[in-house]
Amino acid sequence: MRAVDLFAGAGGTTTGATSVGVRVLAAVNHWKTAVATHAVNHPEAAHFCEDAAILDPTTLPAHDLLLASPSCVGHTRARGKEQPHHDAARATAWCVIRVAETCAPRVVVVENVPEFLRWKLYPAWRSALSLLGYRVSEQVLDAADCGVAQHRERLFVVASKTRRPVVVPHATVRHVPARAVLDLAAGPWSDWRTWCDRSRSRIENGRQEFGEEFLVPYYGSETGGRSLDRPIGTLTTVDRYALIRGDRGRMLSVAEMLRLSSFPANYVLTGSRRDQVKQIGNAVPPGLAAHVVKTVMEAV
């Protein structure tokens, strides 16, 4: 099956798709750092570093499968107070319709946050897919159920030119604990007792529940820690989790975050550390993408 990855980012979806036999012919993204990462790891694909809103779909290669992860910024609960740019972010979903209308792939798979379903224009957006001849289904899946060492719930909208909608089943793979992929001995460490008051409070609460070794969110609404014997919580576009061992603590390394997201060990990220963390936080975990794409391939 031949595919195009729209809003491809650093290549999580492409990596998952290629692992189950898909040929990703082209990747589109507006951020040159993410495009550079994608190109290093997937040199066989053509790369379009441009805004999907002004992309000419006729320049894309013929494909059977359109993979797309339009911006979730305007939908996610983590966006905070409504801002003018959130409307522009939500509008990126219409780029999917434009490419689907022009290129007419047999299947379209769209990934986003579950809140996408509550977008006031979602019924119209879904109806547009139906008018183009697609049968549409929606599933919210957790990456942890696919063997990814990270709880990350994402919505997948599957639109297919089949007699019945393609429904992606929930995976039942045994959860991988964060402990299995973290390097507990790696540094550098610092004394967490010198950290800010809020972090120290979370750590003290975590010690009472989990003992000497656990994870703690560095920001957010959580008031305690997180066990190493379960998948980590959702990784975001900035450093979120610290590892605590006794009186020492450290932020997770980029290599650990890649493993927590199920990227291959040899995956290369370009840009600064901040850029790399952002790319991981934006990425679809390859293990989750593989589960969805494999189901689609088997159904069509």
Describe this structure in words.
It is a single chain. The protein has about 300 residues and is of the alpha/beta class. It is about 30% helix and about 20% strand. The chain has 9 helices and 11 strands. α2 links the parallel β2 and β3 (about 45-50).
Return the CATH class of the largest domain. Alpha Beta
The helix fraction, in percent, is 25-40%
Helix tally equals 9
- Beta-strand portion reads 15-25%
Q: How many domains would you count in the coordinates?
A: 2
Cα(first) to Cα(last) distance is: 10 Å
Low-confidence stretches: none
Major sheet description: 7 strands, mixed
Order of helices and strands: EHEHEEHHEHEEEHEEEHHH
Arithmetic mean pLDDT:
94
Annotated CATH homologous superfamily of the largest domain:
Vaccinia Virus protein VP39
The fold-level CATH name of the largest domain is: Rossmann fold
Radius of gyration over C-alpha positions, nearest whole angstrom: 20 Å
The name of the CATH architecture of the largest domain is 3-Layer(aba) Sandwich
Number of strands: 11
Strand order of the largest sheet: 3-2-1-4-5-7-6
Rough shape?
A: elongated
Structural class: alpha/beta
Main attributes?
single chain; 300 residues; alpha/beta; Rossmann fold; 2 domains; seven-stranded mixed β-sheet; four-stranded antiparallel β-sheet; 19% strand; elongated
